[in-house]
Amino acid sequence: MEVRACVVLQDSQAKPSGYSLHQLQGNKAHGTERIGTLYKKSEGLRKVWQKRKCSVKNGFLTIPHGTANRPPAKLNLLTCQVKSSPDEKKSFDLFSHDRTYHFQAEDEADCQHWVSVLQNSKEEALNKAFKGDQDEGENNIVQELTRAIVEEVKRMSGNSCCCDCGAPDPTWLSTNLGVLICIECSGIHREMGVHYSRIQSLDLDMLGTSELLLAKNVGNASFNEVMEADLSAPDVTKPDPSSDMQVRKDFIMAKYTEKRFVRRQCADAAAQLQALYEAVRCRDILSLLQIYAEGVELREAIDQPNEHEPGETALHLAVRMVDRNSLHIVDFLAQNGGNLDQQTARGSTALHYCCLTDNSECLKLLLRGKASVSIMNEAGETPMDIAKRLRHAQCEEQLTQAQTGKFNVHVHPIPTRREERPVSCLLPGAASLARDKPRPQVPSMMMNNETYGTMMELPPPGPPLPPRGPSRGQAGTTNTDTKCDANDSRV
Ligand SMILES: [Zn+2]
C-alpha cells in the first residue's frame, strides 16, 4: 500500500517541526537508502559547516559525531520534516522535535537527491508501521508517532487549559469531541456517558492514532468558540480550577447535554440539513461541530445534488467525499451521528460505500464503532460481497477480522493502572463508562484512495456556508474561517 497522506499531522498552528506528509514527494527513482557526504551547520555561536558522512536507512538519518568516541545522532524521520531551502539551492533543513538541522549538499542535484531519499525512507517507514504487523520495531515507530501527535495536540490553541474549567495542563482527551480536559472535569464527562463524551487519558492509555484524529482537528479554543459562544445566561457560572464538583457538573451538563451556550444560526430544519450537507462537502469540522451543537439530527437523509444513491446521510456523503485531509469528518459523524447502519434508498450503508470506494481507513473507523457487517443492499450484497467482487483486498481483510472477532486487537498494550483514573465524586462507579472500547488494529490515519474521483463524481461547489458565527466569538461578524476548499489543510 502506498502512503498517500497522513491526515492528522498537519495543523495551521504547527511549528515548523510539526509533522507533515503533505510535503513534497520524493523522487521515487532515488530509492530509500543513501550514504554520502553532507555538510551540517554547527550549533552555537560559531556557525561552521561540518563535513559528515551521513546515511539514510529504514526511516532513520544517521549523522556521525565529530568526535569519534561519541555515538552518532540517529534521527527518526517519522518525527522530522524535511524542507528544501528556497534561497540556497544546495541546502535543505530538517526539523526534528527539538532542533533544526541545516544541511548543505555538494550541489543542487545532490541536494534534491538527499531530500528525495529522506522523503522516500520516511514514507517506507510509515508504510511498514501501518501494515499493522506486531513486530516490535514497527510498533515502536507507531508508538513514537503517537507520542509526537500527542505533543502536537497539547500545543494546539487552548489546549494548555481544561476545556471546561481552565485548569492548566489537562491530560484527559474526549476522543469523540477532540478536546482536552482536566481530571476533575473528566469524571463528569464519564458520567454523561459515551454518547456525549468518550474519555481517555493522554498519559495512561496507549492511544491509537485514530483516536487522536479529532483532537488534532478540533482543539479547545475552536471547540469553545462554538460550545461556549454565549455564556451570558444569568444562571450559569463557568467553573474555574478551584470550583467544586457541583459547579462543574451544572456547567458541563448544560454545555454538553443541553448545548445551552451555543448560538443558533440555522433558521429551520431545512436550513440545518443544508448546512450539514455543506459542512461535510466542504470538509469543515467546525461548521459540522456548529451543526451538531444546534442539535441537528446528523443521521437524517440529505437531499443533495449529485448524490450517488438517493437517501444518503451525512455519513454516506462524508465517506464518498473523504480525502487525505478529511478522515476526521467521517470520524466525527461515526462517533457523534447516532446510527452507523443507516441505509440509502438502495439499501447501502456507509460500510457498503467504503467497500465500493476501497476505503479501508474509513472502514476501520466504522468497524471501531461497531457498524453492522451483515446488512444487505437492495442487490442482496453485504459490504463483504462488494469488497470481494471488486477485489478490494484491504477492505476484505478488515471485514474478515470484524466477522471473526479479531478486529479489536490493540496495537499497543494498555497499561492497567486503573486506580489512577478519575472517579466522579457524584456517581461512584461511573468512571469505567468509557473504558474498553474497541480500537482499530492499526491507526486509521492513512488513506489510499486512488479510486476516488474515478468511481464517484464530486459535487460541484455550492453556495457558501452560513456563517459559523462569531469569528473568534463575536456575533454578527463574518466568519472568515468558513471555507470550502478541498485542499484546505486546516488539519
Ligand atoms: Zn477542568
UniProtKB/TrEMBL annotation:
It is found in: Cytoplasm. SMART domains: ANK (SM00248), ArfGap (SM00105), PH (SM00233). GO terms for cellular component: cytoplasm. Keywords: ANK repeat, Cytoplasm, Metal-binding, Repeat, Zinc, Zinc-finger. InterPro entries: Ankyrin_rpt, Ankyrin_rpt-contain_sf, ARFGAP/RecO, ArfGAP_dom, ArfGAP_dom_sf, ASAP, PH-like_dom_sf, PH_ASAP. Residues 458-469 have a biased composition (Pro residues). Residues 482-491 have a biased composition (Basic and acidic residues). This is ArfGAP with SH3 domain, ankyrin repeat and PH domain 2b.
